[in-house]
């Protein structure tokens, strides 16, 4: 068993512009082999870079603030950009390879979320734009 305190969170993990990720549970920190868990902080009035998490399934729990999650929905005839506004206590599920970004529209309050991923390390693939590419073509 491992105990990770707030002071033990590690910023040496994959990052995207506009937000800061801190690893708590990972292969490097506790020797996990199938799980990554940590926090993300999005400053007031900030938009993160567009990105996806490769093969990882990602679960997000909103701790504080009112972050928005913007993604490309490809299930209709045309890809559509969708915005999901959240508040503390909400959960978000991001399937593998779904391009998205985090936004914090609040001008005065940082948004903090807890993240759990189905891979042992944080996979982050930063993208130039919020568009869908089939997983086979993604680096």
Spans of 5+ residues with little confidence (pLDDT < 50)?
A: none
Instruction: Order the strands across the largest sheet as they lie in space.
Output: 1-2-10-5-8
**Count of DSSP-assigned helices:** 1
- Mean pLDDT, as a whole number? 87
| Subunit organisation of the chains | single chain
- Major beta sheet, specifics? 5 strands, antiparallel
Q: Tell me how many strands there are.
A: 11
Percent helix: under 10%
Roughly how many Å apart are the termini? 35 Å
Estimate what percentage of residues fall within beta strands.
Answer: 35-45%
Main structural class: mainly beta
Rg value: 15 Å
Order of helices and strands: EHEEEEEEEEEE
Morphology: globular
Notes on the structure:
It contains one helix and eleven strands, in the order βαββββββββββ. It has 139 residues and is mainly β. The protein has a five-stranded antiparallel beta sheet. A four-stranded antiparallel beta sheet has the order 3-9-6-7, with no helix packed on it. Strands 4-11 form a two-stranded antiparallel ribbon. Strand 6 (68-73) and strand 7 (80-85) form a beta hairpin. The longest helix has 4 residues, at 27-30. The mean pLDDT is 87.
SSE order and pairing:
Blueprint: E1 20-25, H1 27-30, E2 36-42, E3 46-47, E4 50-52, E5 58-64, E6 68-73, E7 80-85, E8 91-94, E9 100-104, E10 111-117, E11 125-127
Antiparallel strand pairs: 1-2, 2-10, 3-9, 4-11, 5-8, 5-10, 6-7, 6-9
Concise structural overview:
With 139 residues, this protein is an all-beta fold.
Record keyword descriptors for this entry:
single chain; 139 residues; 1 helix
């Amino acid at each position: 068993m491992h105990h990770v305190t707030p002071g033990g969170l590690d910023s040496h993990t994959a990052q995207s512009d506009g937000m800061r990720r801190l690893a708590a549970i990972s292969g490097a920190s506790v020797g996990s082999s199938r799980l990554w868990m940590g926090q993300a902080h999005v400053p007031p009035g900030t938009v993160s870079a567009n990105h996806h998490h490769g093969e990882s399934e990602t679960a997000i729990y909103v701790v504080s603030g009112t972050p928005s999650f913007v993604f490309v929905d490809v299930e209709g005839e045309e890809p559509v950009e969708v915005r999901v506004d959240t508040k503390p206590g909400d959960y978000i599920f991001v399937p593998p390879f779904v391009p998205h970004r985090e936004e914090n529209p609040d001008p005065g309050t940082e948004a903090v979320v807890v993240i759990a991923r189905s891979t042992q390390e944080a996979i982050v693939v930063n993208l130039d734009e919020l568009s869908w590419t089939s997983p086979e073509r993604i680096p």
